[in-house]
Write a structure and sequence with these properties.
67 residues; mainly alpha; 2 helices
Amino acid sequence: MTTLTLDFPDALTAELDAAVEAGWFENQAEAVRAAVRDFLSQGRLALQEQHQLADIEWALDTAKNRA
């Protein structure tokens, strides 16, 4: 297993601590692993689509400006 060191804003850390205290997760590390797994399985496709749409918009604007 690899150890990562991350800097979190205080407000995000407070939310993380609240989720652990509420019993949603055993500890902070488990909560962060769950969030990363969630992002990689669901959020990645949405982010890729967003980047692709931005690239298409850039290409169309570039083509329009050259015309």
